[in-house]
Give the backbone structure.
Amino acid sequence: YVLDGSASPKETELAMYLCLPYALGGYGIERPRLNYHIDIPPSMRKFSSKSYCVCDLCWPDANLVFEYDSKLHHSGEGQRARDSKRSNTLISLGYTVVSVTSIQIGSGEDVNKLAQIAAKFTGKRLRYRDPGFTRKHWELRALLSKPPI
């Protein structure tokens, strides 16, 4: 169930929450492309210092990007400026960019909100049944959030 191309454990965790089937505690959303390259057309490169953007989780057909903002790689004024420039470039290309933090990934309520956003853009109708789904989701959260041995 782990998708290829992840650059961090938190990206993997988020993708699993969103994409695993309901029976395993996930939301059953279409699988994103991880660390997906989006080429920037030459006419738009004056807004960006690169010829492409790398997106943590991307649903290209839905023009949706989830960017995981880790404390390690997204702190400092310079990095925040680069992140902002990348987001602005993607938005100008027609993508919706959603920033995701480790606090959000650690919150069942916030992951549910992120799943609703992804479902809306990908055309997925969320139809899980409670309390069974909630129990399975919390089991999945307990499994994925365990520290490595």
Strands lie at 33-39, 52-59, 64-68, 96-100. The mean pLDDT is 91.
